[in-house]
Recover the amino acids of this structure.
């Protein structure tokens, strides 16, 4: 059985006249250690898909399993536990705590995780050794995104979920971030799921899931994904 | 078309942020409410009392003299400035109801035009009616007497019955009591015609002054014309002074407390409003970009302030004015026998408070709007960057900072990041604790003062009041069986100094007396040999200090005596001059004739034997006086409950409001924590610890101002004849602090339940 399976998953918002079908009867699988890109135009349902996968939202119907655990069956504290130990999130707009330094933002994640990495080492890994004691407002966008990734990595998550990680960055910085994500996938064996509307980024993936109007359009495999340094947009 | 859309936006904004707008309305309500209540009571008391005095022609002077005959009456009438005069007889007589029930009988020689009784039932007393009387309402009610019933009084061993013609109240007997508290079961008054009781000698002339007469000069004229008379004016007439002091006390209380509450409320309103406008910067930018004239936009945002502030302030004003004063009136004025209760219109200062509320709220909106509007529309359309994190002072002390846990560091920085919000929260808690301490402290102080005065300063167990001059001090001391017997003599005296004069009481105590402890802290004060001891408050009023010379003038005696102040006596409840017996006798103003005997530890049956003696008027027991004073305090407890209620209500609105603000501003942070896998409990604990630290600081910081406020309120409640010292009790301070802390804690527990409802997806939606 695959690491991640979506089995006839639907997500509806609202009701009656104003019912919005964000996802409708979605089925796909992702293998452990994949670098998977979910590609689609805005409003296609990508973020909804990621939110369901990350345990931030509940599916209306269908089953999601991650590593043999049925995420759709988890309740309250179990769901928190799942986010805490299994999932790392990277947001488009970083969502760092403005009044914690870069290092402290990473420590924040370690607080709740049992087998976390040493925050300083992780900061080193993302290349922010020199800027550890700066506050988010003193960092550039790329640096902030790296803090955000460090925060996710620190928890040693089996699953790294990234929502438009390069959306707010320029091309050059974006490439650096993607390269970092590729390294993570390669070195720690984490499964990385990246959401984007940018088709170029799909070239880095060994699994590409195309989403359109709340449904899966296609799933492609690529045996030899490109290196981040080779692409540009 | 412009305005209706903005109006719709205002309405929708309000319904979306209904809690914040509600809290503004509520705060404005509380701010004006407290003032409206106290101002309402004060004005109600003032207008009712003064109207009553005016309409029923309260006397300006009560002149007691050996014989109020025709000559005296015409001499009085001839004084320039005197308008009307009437001669009267007055005596306290036993009734036939029971030996313990006395009435004060006032017999008018002529029409009852001065101190005209207010007729409640029945008819007025005809001048020729020798069998009828007018009876005090409360007394009639207490003894189930009504018009047509008979009431007998005992005079010289003879029972004389009167028919009750009318039930009345009298402006000169608003506070009717033999000692401290009114007790209509045991004491009341009747009014009759003088010819009905010819045995009672006419010894009093009451008079009114012409409107433009100089009251003090006239008083001096009267004293000159009747050197042997005791002249009492409205400023020294016991009932009148006490009623006016009560009214004044409410007026003084309106000064401190509600104004404090008002300004705290205003500060919170201003903070909230400025935050709300800040949160609207995107929309301000949009409206500007759309080309709305600045005037329209400004108007729109001003209505953010004006609508809730005006609504709240008006609600507070009307509700405060129309409800509590009427509810509290009966308990507060329970000592006063007033025929009616007038309801004056809302006062100008109260309206001014409303105007000020609206002006302050509008001002801060205008200011916040202009701060935002100075930026270009483009800048406004970008979201405001989140406030930077900052190094705080604590971090500059590395050994300390390193010791703190991660959570502690976060809490410390968060508190200092939003200084204004933290400060407002802190202030709300501080204020709540301060008011609670003041409220408890005031009650403590009155209790402590009462116990100290009647229990320690007055060191005797019973005070036997004598009428007339029958025996010498030595004879009483010999005859009465008690642990200790000491006589005292009280005389009315006018005390003159460079800075003014007051009519007061001169008390002559035996040499080496033990039963009145007039020193500091109820210690024994040695009365100065050849000098006078003057009470603290009287010294203060007249600007006197030990060593100064004072002039004592006795009624009916042209020759005044000069004495030096040798000591300051401490007496909280009555002011006057004390002399020892030797000093008095050296003045050659008459012999030492006891007017009262103080008893310590009286033997069994002494009281009965004493009451059987002709010259004994009544016996006062300090233990009973304590009980009566405490009972009066109980009637005030409603007003303290209102104080406490307002304190808690303010704390509630402030904490709730600041909590809402905190949530609104940091929703993204909490959502992120949730995504990171923080349990709800952990996030709650984080918020709780922030607010509990503030609560702790606020509670602690409120203690000192609370104690100060207690002192300040006690001070404004002082009249010329009392000295109130505040004694806030440590226990009360602790209880108040515990209530404040517990209240805030429960509020936080309730409020942090919202963590559960944080929608991660919604909160973290990208800003698109």
């Amino acid at each position: 059985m695959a690491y991640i399976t979506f089995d006839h998953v639907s997500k509806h918002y609202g009701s009656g006249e104003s019912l919005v079908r964000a996802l409708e009867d979605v089925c796909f699988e992702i293998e452990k250690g994949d670098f998977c890109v979910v590609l689609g135009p805005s409003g296609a349902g990508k973020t909804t898909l990621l939110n369901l996968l990350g345990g931030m939202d509940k599916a209306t119907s269908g089953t999601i399993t991650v590593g043999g655990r049925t995420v759709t069956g988890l309740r309250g504290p179990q769901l928190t536990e799942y986010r805490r130990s299994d999932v790392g999130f990277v947001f488009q707009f970083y969502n760092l705590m403005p009044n914690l330094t870069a290092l402290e933002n990473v420590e924040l994640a370690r607080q709740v995780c049992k087998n976390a990495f040493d925050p300083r080492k992780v900061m080193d890994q993302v290349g922010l050794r020199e800027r550890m004691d700066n506050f988010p407002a003193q960092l550039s966008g790329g640096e902030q995104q790296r803090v955000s990734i460090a925060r996710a990595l620190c928890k040693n998550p089996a699953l790294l979920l990234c929502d438009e990680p390069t959306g707010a960055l320029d091309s050059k910085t974006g490439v650096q971030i993607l390269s970092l994500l590729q390294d993570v996938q390669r070195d720690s064996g984490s499964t990385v799921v990246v959401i984007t509307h940018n088709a170029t980024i799909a070239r880095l993936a060994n699994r590409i899931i195309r989403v359109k109007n709340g449904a899966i359009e296609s799933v492609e495999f690529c045996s030899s994904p490109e290196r981040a340094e080779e692409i540009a947009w | 078309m412009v305005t209706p859309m903005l109006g719709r936006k205002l309405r929708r904004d309000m319904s979306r942020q209904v809690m914040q707008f509600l809290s503004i309305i509520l705060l404005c309500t509380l701010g004006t409410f407290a003032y409206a209540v106290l101002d309402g009571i004060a004005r109600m008391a003032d207008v009712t009392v003064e109207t009553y005095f005016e309409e029923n022609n309260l006397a300006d002077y009560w002149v007691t003299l050996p014989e109020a005959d025709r000559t005296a009456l015409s001499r009085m009438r001839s004084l320039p400035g005197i308008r009307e005069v009437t001669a009267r007889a007055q005596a306290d007589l036993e009734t036939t109801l029971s030996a313990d029930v006395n009435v004060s009988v006032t017999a008018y020689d002529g029409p009852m035009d001065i101190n005209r009784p207010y007729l409640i039932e029945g008819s007025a007393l005809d001048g020729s009616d020798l069998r009828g009387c007018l009876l005090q309402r409360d007394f009639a009610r207490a003894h189930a007497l009504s018009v047509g019933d008979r009431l007998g009084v005992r005079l010289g061993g003879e029972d004389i019955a009167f028919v009750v013609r009318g039930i009345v109240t009298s402006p000169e007997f608003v506070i009717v009591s033999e000692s401290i508290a009114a007790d209509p079961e045991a004491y009341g008054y009747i009014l009759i015609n003088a010819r009905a009781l010819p045995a009672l000698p006419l010894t009093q002339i009451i008079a009114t002054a012409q409107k433009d007469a100089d009251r003090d000069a006239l008083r001096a004229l009267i004293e000159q014309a009747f050197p042997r008379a005791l002249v009492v004016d409205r400023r020294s007439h016991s009932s009148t002074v006490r009623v006016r002091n009560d009214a004044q006390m409410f007026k003084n209380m309106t000064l401190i407390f509600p104004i404090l509450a008002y300004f705290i409320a205003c500060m919170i309103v201003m903070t909230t409003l400025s935050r709300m406008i800040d949160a609207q910067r995107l929309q301000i930018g949009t409206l500007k970009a759309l080309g709305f004239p600045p005037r329209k936009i400004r108007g729109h945002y001003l209505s953010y302030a004006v609508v809730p502030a005006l609504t709240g302030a008006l609600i507070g004003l009307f509700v405060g004015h129309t409800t509590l004063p009427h509810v509290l009136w009966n308990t507060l004025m329970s000592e006063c026998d007033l025929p009616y209760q007038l309801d004056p219109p809302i006062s100008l200062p109260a309206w001014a408070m409303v105007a000020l509320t609206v002006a302050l709220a509008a001002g801060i909106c205008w200011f916040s709007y202009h701060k935002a509007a100075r930026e270009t529309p483009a800048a406004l359309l970008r979201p405001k960057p989140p406030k930077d994190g900052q190094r705080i002072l604590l971090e500059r002390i590395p050994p300390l900072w390193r010791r703190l846990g991660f959570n502690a560091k976060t809490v410390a920085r968060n508190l200092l990041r939003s200084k204004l919000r933290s400060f407002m929260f802190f202030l709300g808690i501080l204020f709540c604790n301060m008011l609670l301490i003041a409220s408890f402290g005031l009650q403590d102080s009155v209790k402590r003062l009462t116990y100290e005065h009647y229990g320690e300063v007055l060191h005797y167990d019973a005070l036997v009041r004598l009428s007339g001059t029958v025996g010498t001090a030595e004879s009483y001391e010999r005859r009465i069986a008690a642990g200790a017997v000491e006589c005292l003599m009280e005389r009315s005296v006018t005390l003159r100094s460079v800075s003014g004069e007051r009519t007061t009481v001169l008390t002559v105590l035996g040499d080496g007396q033990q039963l009145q402890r007039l020193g500091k802290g109820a210690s024994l004060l040695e009365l100065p040999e050849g000098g006078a001891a003057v009470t603290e408050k009287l010294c203060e009023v007249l600007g006197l200090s030990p060593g100064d010379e004072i002039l004592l003038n006795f009624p009916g005696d042209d020759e005044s005596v000069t004495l030096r102040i040798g000591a300051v006596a401490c007496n909280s409840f009555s002011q006057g001059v004390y002399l020892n017996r030797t000093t008095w006798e050296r003045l050659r103003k008459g012999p030492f004739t006891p007017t009262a005997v103080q008893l310590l530890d009286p033997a069994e049956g002494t009281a009965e034997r004493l009451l059987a003696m002709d010259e004994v008027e009544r016996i006062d027991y300090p233990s009973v006086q304590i009980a009566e004073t405490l009972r009066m305090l109980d009637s005030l407890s409603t007003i303290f409950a209102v104080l406490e209620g307002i304190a808690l209500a303010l704390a509630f609105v402030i904490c709730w409001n600041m909590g809402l603000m905190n949530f609104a501003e940091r929703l993204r942070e909490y959502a992120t924590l949730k995504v990171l896998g923080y349990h709800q409990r952990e996030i709650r604990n984080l918020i709780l610890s922030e607010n509990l630290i503030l609560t702790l600081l606020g509670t602690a910081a409120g203690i000192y101002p609370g104690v100060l406020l207690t002192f300040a309120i006690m001070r404004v409640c002082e009249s010329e004849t009392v000295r109130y010292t505040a004694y806030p009790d440590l226990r009360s301070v602790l209880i108040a602090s515990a209530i404040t802390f517990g209240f805030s804690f429960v509020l936080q527990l309730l409020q942090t339940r919202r963590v559960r409802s944080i929608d991660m997806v919604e909160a973290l939606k990208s800003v698109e």
Observations:
- Chain B has a mean pLDDT of 86.
- Residues 622-675 of chain B form the longest helix (54 residues).
- Residues 464 and 619 of chain B are 4 Å apart (CA to CA).
- Chain B is about 50% helix and 20% strand.
